[in-house]
Each structure stands twice: as C-alpha cells, then as structure tokens.
C-alpha cells in the first residue's frame, strides 16, 4: 500500500525522521528527569519505537518492525548522543523539535492505520491503531518516566485530535479506495497542520462538564 | 465452551455490561485527575479492554477481541459521554457502579479462565489469566493515571481474592468436566458476592508480618 | 542451544534461582510500599517473569514460558511467603540478595539473547532482548509500584551496562560460532562480576553533559 505509494526511499527517510524526533523528545525528558546516559538511551528508544511496537504486537506482526530494521535501533542512539552532548542547544530549538514531532505524528498515524488494515483489521480498529502508532510512544515515555501522560492531560495542547483526524482520513480513503500517494500525504499533512495550529494557538480539549468552574477556582 | 453454555446474546449482553462498568470506573478516575475529554476516553477504553487485551496477547489470540468487535470500541465511548456530562450524578451512584464492577469482576474471571483454557493453556495458568482478565484493566487504568494500582494497596477492600476464587472455581469445574451454564454462573456469582461482602464489611487482606504494629503507629 | 550446552537440570536450576531472587526484589519493594499480601505476590511475580514475558511476546513465543512452566508460577509465590514472614531478616541479608540478583542478571541476559536468536532475530536485536530479559522485570516492578525505574536513575549503580556486556558477549559468541557451555558461562560470569563491582565500588554512569555542575550544586 503506502510502500507502493511513495518511492520506498522517501517513505523510509520520513519514517526514520519520525523515529528520530520522537527519540529526541524522549531523550529530552530523560535529561530533565536526571537519568544517566543509559536511561536516556532507553527512554529515547522506548519513545521512538513504543507506539509501533504495541501496534505490531496487537496485529500479530512479530517480530515487530522495531526488531527487524537496524534503523530503529541506531536512530534513537544517535538522538541520544546528540541530546547528551547538546541538550541545552536542543532545548533552545524546542520549537523546531515540536515541528518535527508534529510531522512524525502526521506520518505515523497514516502509516499505522495502513499497516493495521493490511494485517486484516477492520477500518475503525485500523484507525485506532494509527492513533496508537502516533501517540503510543509518548505514553510509554511518560509512564516509564513516572509522569502523568501528557496525552491525557487537560493543560496540554491537543495531541490526540490531530492523530484521530489523520488516522480517520486514512481509513476513509481506504474505504473509498482512494488511497494514493497524494491523498495519503494530504492526510498526514492535515494531522501535521492541525497539531501545529494547536501549538501555535494553544488549542486544548474541554474537560468534563462542571469542571470548568472548578478550573477557574484553581487558576 | 461458555459460548455454548449461555445463549450467545445473554453472554454478549453480560460482556458488554462488564465493559461498560469498567469503562465508567476509568472515566471517573480520569475526571478526578482533571484529564480532557480525549484523556477520559483513552482511560475508559484502556480500563475496559486492558485485561482482556493482555490475556489475548499472552494466549496468542491476535488480533485481540478488543480489536475485532465494535462493541468493545463503542461501549467505552458511550461510558465516556455519560461521565463527561453526568459525572457528579455518576459519582453519587458510586455504590451502584461498585455493584456493577463486582458483576464485571465475577463474569470476566470466569470468561477469561475459560478462554485461556480453550487456547491450550494449563489450568493453573488459565486461572491466572482469568484473574488478569478481571483485574488487569484496573491496573492499566492506575498505571496510566500515574497512581499506585489500587489492586496492590493494603488500604483497599480485597479485589484479587474474589477474582482468584472465581477463576479457581472455573478451573476446577473444567478439571472435573463439570463446567456448564449453571456451574459457571455460580462461579461468577461466588466472585461477585465475595467482592460485594468485601466492600460492605471493609474486608482487607493482611500485609507482611510485623507491618501490623507499624500500621498501628501510623494510624 | 544453551539447552544443549548445560545439562538441562543445571540450566533449569539456575533459571529458577534467577526467578527466585528477582521475585525477592519485587516482594521487598512491595513490603516497603505497604502492599497487602496479594499485592506482594503480584509484584513478586511480575518482577520475576516480566522481562522474559516481554521478550516472548516480541519474538512470538506464545504462550510465553512463564505460562507453560509451573516453576515460574510457584517460585514467586514461595519468595512471597518467605518475604511476608521474614522480610526484616531478608532486608538484613540485602547484600546476599544483591549478589543473587547479579547472578540472575548475568544468567538472564545470556539466556535471553540465545532464545531470541533461536527465534530468528538478528544478533543486535537478540542482544537487546537479552538486556530486556535481564532488566525488564525490574522496570515492570518499578512501574507497577509507581516509582521511577531504578534502571534509568542516575543515583543507582549501573545495571544496564553489565546486562549489555553479557548480552553482547553472547551475541559475539554466536556470531563467531563459539557459543558453548564454557563460553556462555563466561559471558554470564562477566556480567555478574561487572554488576558486583558496580555495587562494591559505587560505579555510576554519567549523565548528560552540563549536568555534572548542576549535580555538584544539588549535592
């Protein structure tokens, strides 16, 4: 599917870029948590590969991609080395990291949905696994670092919504047999731009009813 | 097995009811943790399907039931909507929720044991997976919410014991080839009633030896 | 492979000894966290079997060894009983427990690497899974107990490095077709001794660059 849509080298380059920026976000959190260099490498790798790993276990793609392609092993280590030596500089370009992270989010929700569908899952479940692929690594990162997952928190810009939009678009395209290089790239782009707007304009999702007044008091 | 024991529609209705109440417990915790609506939906879904998902990965039933039956996807979302708009009312009927949760506990420990046995596991391991099915979702819920799992805590009414009793009864019935609709319903009922009594009478499990005096000091 | 290297009974005895000491470490943490006896049993079992369980799910060895061999079920329960009744004494021999834990670390990183290779994984990934086998249970333990995994923390003696050394040695031996009872025992021994030295001499891994001065201020 997607593999045929793009030239493989383009797709692979995008994939590795996504792995890299997710690994950066894991490594930066590890530095903030004062982990040692091995802890940084573990958190970078878990963040980068966690979402795809969970997807592959659920669809029965064993051994998972993360354990068959050396790029998934080496890329997080490169991100680790970069962050270990240059983390103040990387923090300073946090905005650039956020842009790449949004690109990874867009790419992974589309790729994840497509792969799950190829393994025979129904489209609603394929879309769920697209979201898991894009957002699961960040949840694994936060659980390992003993933090409340930023995906779930109210005081963070929306992350799930762009992933849901991108994965749903991909699922709809598959349903209408309209998945092609252009349309799948546009799906990823929609998720990417939605996430960028969320960061730029501070978009948050609402909380439970009645919580708003309580929040006003807290603030 | 169990599928033949009950009429499928009865079993399915019980199953969905169990999913629903587990999802309610996840959604309520998410509201208390101040998550946004997507965080509530994620925690509700993870709580409702987490135990069965772990069981299915371990017995090799991929894709897991949670990813093949739309009821497992839609039911937690309904529970989310209910809790988002009515959570003060749902909190107020917390006692009713606890009763349904106990029913889910009873049902899932028996169903989980039976399914694991059908997939070829030995009876002791099938019983362990019955307990995982019943109690695993709550552990996933607490880990994602960054809380100490209430399953493990001393200051909570026993939850593991009813699940162990129900799963062990189911395993014994299978061993003596006495599993039928009535006997498996009685196993689930035993776990259900034991959990209700634990809540009603505040039954707790002991801690490690020597801890009791320390507890007295703490109190 | 390894199964042929040692007489099965020796290997099995070592394996069960590793399970036992990992279970002790889980049970001791559970006592410190004030869990009830069932919480202690759950944490002991998860610590002892978690690493191998994750490895088996990733390589597709389902049902995992932990769910086919009664020793994996009974041994953690024995460790639980021991700790519940004698935990002050067990704490007092914490140094002995640390020695056994180091032995389990050495054994499991070699066994895990070999098993993953037998299931068809490439050697770098087999070595990663060796490390997961040896260190994964401790991470599961800390996540369930809602603590920052001690594997990742800077203020703990190195644990990952001995596992990486042992797993890499085993992978190199496989690569050069030199894996035999003596050489694999030496690999496990290297990891074991490295871990013992780390404890004895307080070896820690460095943190990210620039963190050292910050650490000096904190101290």
From TrEMBL, chains A, B, C:
- Has the keyword Ubl conjugation been applied to this entry? no
Would you tell me the Gene Ontology cellular component terms? plasma membrane
Membrane association type: Multi-pass membrane protein
Locations listed in the record: Cell membrane
Residue ranges of coiled coil: none
Q: Which keywords does this chain's UniProt record carry?
A: Cell membrane, Membrane, Transmembrane, Transmembrane helix
- Family annotation (Pfam families): Gly_transporter
Residue ranges annotated as transmembrane are 12-31, 38-58, 70-86, 98-117, 123-144, 156-176, 182-203
- Give all residue intervals belonging to the Glycine transporter domain: 13-87, 99-173
Provide the family line.
Answer: Belongs to the UPF0126 family.
Protein name (database record):
Trimeric intracellular cation channel family protein
Organism of origin is Streptomyces xinghaiensis
Species lineage: Bacteria, Bacillati, Actinomycetota, Actinomycetes, Kitasatosporales
